[in-house]
Write a structure and sequence with these properties.
Length: 95
């Protein structure tokens, strides 16, 4: 890690037992936060993934590579969501 790089790691456990993990790496360039990499992973109370947004470059055929969203049994193109939107989506998950 350099003085210009920050790694954000947050784990939120919701009342119904599901979990949201927020991981994001950013650098500061000219006093602006610039995202390098991200992973927002939500799982149910049984540790089964319900969704995950990430920028890992493992689906090169997606239209907005490397940005995508994992949903049960599928991977779809998805822009990088803001963290507030991800938290709201996780809050709406039903146990």
């Amino acid at each position: 890690m350099t003085p210009e790089r920050v790694n954000l790691r947050i784990r939120l456990r919701f009342e119904r037992g599901h979990l949201l993990e927020i991981n994001e790496a950013v650098v500061v360039e000219e006093n602006i936060l610039v995202p390098l990499d991200y992973r927002y992973h939500c799982q149910d109370e049984h540790s089964q993934s319900t969704f995950r947004y990430d920028s890992t470059p493992h689906f090169p055929d997606l239209s907005i590579f490397p940005h995508h969203k994992h949903i049960p049994d599928n991977v779809i193109p998805s822009d990088k969501p803001d963290i507030e939107r991800v938290v709201q989506e996780a809050k709406q998950r039903r146990a």
